[in-house]
Structures are given as C-alpha cells and as structure tokens.
Amino acid sequence: MIAANVSLPRTEGIEYIDVETAAQLEQAARQAFPETDVLLMAAAVADFRPAAPHESKITKTGREELVVELEPTTDVIAALAAERRPGQTVVGFAAEHGEGGAERARAKLERKGLDAIVLNDVSRPGIGFDSAENEVSIVTRAGTQDVPKALKVEVAGTIIEVVETLHAEEVKTS
User: Fold this and answer.
1) pLDDT for 137-173, tens place per residue?
2) SS (H, E, C) the chain
3) Pairing relationship of beta strands 38-41 and 116-121 according to DSSP bridges
4) Tens of pLDDT along 4-16?
5) Which among 127, 41, 54 has a CA at the least distance from the CA of 88?
C-alpha cells in the first residue's frame, strides 16, 4: 500500500509505504511494480507541481501579485502500464463530473493502456466523498458494469471481484 498524505488505519500483514510528493509516489510505485500482479491506483498525489519551487516561505510584502508556473507530473499509472510484463493487470480510478463521464473514463482507459477504470461521478450527492456509500461504473475494453449504490465496503468487494476476473483472463492469455 503506497499512500500519500492520508491517515489510514494500519492492518497487520500489509506493507505500507508513505510518500508526500508525486516524485516519491512514482519512485515507490516503480520499485514495487515489477513484483506486482495487480496494480490498483486510486489517484495521483498531484497532476502538476511548481516549475521552480522556493526553499522558504514567499512573503506578501512588496508584491502586487504572484505568478506560479506549474509543470505536469509523470502520469505514473500510464507509465507503469506501458512497462508492464505479461500477466500484470492495471486498474485506475476516475473522478468525473456529470454528463459524458463514461466517455471520458473510456478514453482515459484507452489512452493510459489500462485493463479497467473505476468511474466515480463526483457530481452526484449522497455518494462518494463524505459518505458511507458509493455507486460506480467499472469500465473495461469489453464494456461497462454498473455497481449499484451500496456501502463502500460492498462496492469495493464488487470491484475486487471484477479485478480478479480480469486478472485471471490476463494470466490465461499471457
């Protein structure tokens, strides 16, 4: 479990790697990936970072404005998917908003070379963030499976079942 800036309860028997930056996430993921059968990546630490970070606090004194130039971070899941060995399964998550979310998720699946992408429609109230329940769609090359609204642990169980099936198929064909 590679995690950035989260305080999750720790479960015995699981190795945890704490990271703070996108660069640390990339390094930890690249190090662990060769020995990984299934990679599930929920989110990047950040899509952009300051192009020229300051070593200390930037003061407001004497400034009318501040322009910060950003540069993209590595798309870690896409990079790892491109480097995978036969038999590895790569699954991502997409937080989309409103109409067209499924099409954007499918495009992301293809662009990044993933086996599946779990789509969360973050525009819908009562699910996802700050809720005990969620409702997702699992997008694969073969189609889309809607997972109805349920407790997050139940939704997670369905996602794992789909991933296990995808992985078994991947192992069979490699």
Assistant:
1) 999 999 999 999 999 999 999 999 999 999 998 888 8
2) CEEECCCCCCCCCCCCEEECCHHHHHHHHHHHHHHCCEEEECCCCCCEEECCCCCCCCCCCCCCCCCCCEEECCCHHHHHHHHCCCCCEEEEEEEECCCCHHHHHHHHHHHHCCCEEEEEECCCCCCCCCCCEEEEEEEECCEEEEEEEEEHHHHHHHHHHHHHHHHHHHHHHC
3) unpaired
4) 877 778 899 999 9
5) 41
